[in-house]
Design a protein that fits this description.
- By secondary structure, this protein is α/β, with parallel strands linked by helices.
- It has one domain: L-arginine/glycine Amidinotransferase, Chain A (5-stranded Propeller), CATH 3.75.10.10.
- The chain has seven helices and 15 strands.
- Strands 2-1-15 form a three-stranded mixed sheet, with helices on one face. A three-stranded mixed sheet has the order 3-4-5, sandwiched between helices.
- The longest helix has 17 residues.
- The chain binds arginine.
- The site of arginine has 16 residues, from loops.
Length: 268
Amino acid sequence: MTTDAAPRTYLMCRPTHFAVTYRINPWMDPAAPYDNALAVRQWETLRQTFLDLGHTVELIEPLAGLPDMVFAANGATVVDGTVLAVQFRDAERADEAPAYRAWFESRGFEVHDAKHTNEGEGDILLAGDVLLAGTGFRTAHAAHAQAQEVFGRPVITLQLVDPAYYHLDTALCVLDDRTVAYLPEAFSPGSQAVLRRLFPDAVHATATDAAVLGLNAVSDGRTVVLPVQATALTAALRERGYETVGVDLSELRKAGGGPKCCTLEVRS
Ligand code: ARG
């Protein structure tokens, strides 16, 4: 744990239109039941958790016909007040991109168009001075080079290999400026070696933690908000000196998302 905890600004999207009507990752089963009202209540608890921790939560208007728009992390990448817009792999989510872009433009942010498939903070995470960038399922490798140009920060490419962990933020959580938690087997052997080299003190999650999307967590450097079902990871984080808050996002997990997917950090 470091003392870099400071109030954050998060952008979120209420899951008013949340549904599981298509399948673009292995968690999604359009034939299985889901409860929209429960999803909204679970999301409200997440939002209230951030407010209770002293953070600011901004909201974007949810649009009908975009059931995955609740996953705001995929709406952009924002570092030092600069916004890199997104381009979704799947047609089902394509219309979310201009909505998020417009949100940032209307608030005066400088927005760069995505030149390649790029699913925002789902795959591009700021870790101290560098950006960690996932590829293999969604964000294209070429998007990593664009992120390096736009943000002027080194980008470390990480190869994801397990379809269940299709976005970087499902397999790795940035805990603070110095370290991360991750599921080693979600990465290629070379990327595992890179992670060991960069983060010798990292927390290694278990397959059981990852399977409840335990790594899809939001840390402010002091407190980690993570799925309540990730009990071993919670214990490991507490042992390291982090505070933890468990939240239940079981309904949103039916679309393959957890706390971090619902949360886009706006770094002005
Ligand atoms: N159903 C969404 C998709 O497959 C879930 C997105 C989760 N977001 C994230 N940042 N991992 O695109």
